[in-house]
């Protein structure tokens, strides 16, 4: 009798009864990656269940929502606020184009907030329908792993029920990190920042990553005074240094007070607001203090240690190149693995998981040439290597091409921001290794350019 090799490496044996499970796949976490993996696995014929915490714009250990961070408290609501904030400077510029704008233009924060909440509620419903239409069983509650093939669901009323599954997929994402300094409870994270009842007049932001510079742009565009404190000399560590300098110059030009090589030591509540103390002895008074100091994998309550799933020093789930943990029946994708923490990457990993486990086509995620954008105002977008990375990684000479120009729109408005474009090229082969752009519509331009070049390179065998 022939033996069949299963994806988990187990061999079926003659006369052996097939194990019965409640589900072929149980997904813990219904964010972008988990929903994609669940839907695509179901399309391959798997019996799939997925669990997620009840919906709330602000996440906690007991709240979440189908759609996850990106849809509910990340990319989508953030970009809505960025779009809203961009109208402030646009209205100022409109005067130069002949529009007779009153000296004071009122901004209704609560109206925008309401529109934002309406949109994420709508998207939450769409994601639920996507699961339902694919035949995926959705459970509302907290999931935890209690065995290699068993998930315990803590339901909304507190009762517990367990389900068996041939495969378990962890897709619980990440959560905002709070630095431990005196008075840290007075600060907020990006979750709360997207749902503030009142727009702050004075804001202090700690952090130099994309969340920090985006919220600095949002609040400044809406008229707030913003102080941005970050540990390095430039924001956006890991991006091309030249483009980081461009972003810093633009933020400062928009009226954001920059505090490089600075961190916070203490927060104190006073009658006039929150006193923010820096390690340089400065004291800044603020209505809101935002900690944008990174995110940590959301593994705390999953019971993974008890099951023997290995975690790294950041408490991220350790996986192989196919997203499989050291326990053969347990897999993980998305930010909980702390590989490349972007929504499109989680979607790719979910697709590859479904192909590997249920599609009969083992597929590794490909992390090369993934475009990303930082939605500061104006935005920065990149794909491939920075100049520094190329010099470090490439054997041979690297050519760098830059173009700096004044966007035509600015010639009339008088705004002094320059658009900057940069290509990093292998000097020997003329292959483009990396591209960056900071300026109006940079994300859309970079995405279109990346798609075109990927097709060309693929046809030429260069990628």
Automatic annotation (TrEMBL):
GO biological process: cell redox homeostasis; cellular response to oxidative stress; glutathione metabolic process
Reactions catalysed: 2 glutathione + NADP(+) = glutathione disulfide + NADPH + H(+)
Keyword Cell membrane: no
Tagged with keyword Methyltransferase: no
Residue ranges of the TM segments: none
Keywords, comma-separated and alphabetical: Disulfide bond, FAD, Flavoprotein, NAD, NADP, Nucleotide-binding, Oxidoreductase, Redox-active center
Cofactor(s) the protein needs: FAD
UniProt cofactor note: Binds 1 FAD per subunit.
Top-level division of the source organism's lineage: Eukaryota
Disulfide bond sites: 70-75
EC number: 1.8.1.7
Coiled coil ranges: none
Record: residues binding FAD: 79, 143, 172-174, 335
One Gene Ontology term, aspect cellular component: mitochondrion
Residues that hold NAD(+) according to the record: 207-214, 294
Domain FAD/NAD(P)-binding: 23-350
Domain annotation Pyridine nucleotide-disulphide oxidoreductase dimerisation: ranges: 370-449
MF GO annotations: flavin adenine dinucleotide binding; glutathione-disulfide reductase (NADPH) activity; NADP binding
Its biological purpose: Catalyzes the reduction of glutathione disulfide (GSSG) to reduced glutathione (GSH).
Family classification: Belongs to the class-I pyridine nucleotide-disulfide oxidoreductase family.
NCBIfam families associated with the record: gluta_reduc_2
PANTHER family recorded: GLUTATHIONE REDUCTASE (PTHR42737:SF2)
Protein name as catalogued: Glutathione reductase
Annotated organism of origin: Anisodus tanguticus
């Amino acid at each position: 009798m022939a033996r069949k090799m299963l994806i988990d490496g187990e061999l079926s044996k003659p006369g052996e009864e097939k194990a019965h499970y409640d589900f072929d796949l149980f997904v813990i976490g219904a964010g972008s990656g988990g929903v994609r993996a669940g839907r695509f696995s179901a399309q391959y014929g798997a019996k799939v269940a997925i669990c997620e915490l009840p919906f709330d714009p602000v996440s906690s250990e007991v709240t979440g929502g189908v759609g996850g961070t990106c849809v509910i408290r990340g990319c989508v609501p953030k970009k809505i606020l960025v779009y809203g904030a961009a109208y402030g400077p646009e209205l100022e510029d409109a005067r130069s184009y002949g529009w007779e704008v009153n000296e004071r233009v009122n901004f209704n924060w609560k109206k925008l907030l309401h529109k934002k909440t309406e949109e994420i509620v709508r998207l939450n419903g769409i994601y639920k329908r996507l699961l339902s239409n694919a035949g995926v069983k959705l459970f509302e509650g907290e999931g935890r792993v209690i065995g290699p093939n068993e998930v315990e669901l803590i339901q909304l009323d507190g009762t517990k029920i367990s389900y068996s599954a041939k495969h378990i997929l962890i897709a619980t994402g990440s959560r905002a990190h709070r630095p431990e300094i005196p008075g840290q409870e007075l600060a907020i994270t990006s979750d709360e920042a997207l749902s503030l009842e009142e727009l702050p007049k004075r804001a202090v932001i700690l952090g130099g990553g994309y969340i920090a510079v985006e919220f600095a742009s949002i609040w400044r565009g809406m008229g707030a005074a913003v102080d941005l404190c970050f540990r390095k000399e430039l924001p956006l560590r890991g991006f091309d240094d030249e483009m980081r300098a461009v972003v810093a110059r633009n933020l400062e030009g928009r009226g954001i007070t920059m505090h490089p090589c600075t961190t916070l030591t203490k927060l104190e509540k006073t009658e006039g607001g929150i006193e923010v103390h820096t390690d340089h002895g400065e004291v800044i008074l603020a209505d809101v203090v935002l900690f944008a100091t990174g995110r940590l994998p959301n593994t705390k309550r999953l019971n993974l240690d008890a099951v023997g799933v290995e975690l790294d020093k950041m408490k991220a789930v350790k996986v192989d190149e196919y997203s499989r943990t050291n326990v053969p029946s347990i897999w993980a994708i998305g930010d909980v693995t702390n590989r490349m923490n972007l929504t499109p990457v989680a979607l790719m990993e979910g697709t590859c998981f479904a192909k590997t486990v249920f599609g009969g086509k083992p597929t590794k995620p490909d992390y090369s040439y993934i475009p990303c954008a930082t939605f500061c105002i104006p935005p920065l977008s990149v794909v491939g290597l920075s100049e520094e990375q190329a010099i470090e990684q490439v054997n041979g000479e690297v050519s760098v091409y830059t173009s700096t120009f004044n966007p035509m729109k600015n010639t009339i408005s008088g705004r002094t921001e320059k658009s900057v474009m940069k290509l990093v090229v292998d000097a020997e082969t003329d292959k483009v290794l990396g591209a960056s752009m900071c300026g109006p519509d940079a994300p859309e331009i970079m995405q279109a350019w990346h798609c075109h070049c990927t097709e060309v390179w693929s046809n030429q065998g260069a990628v």
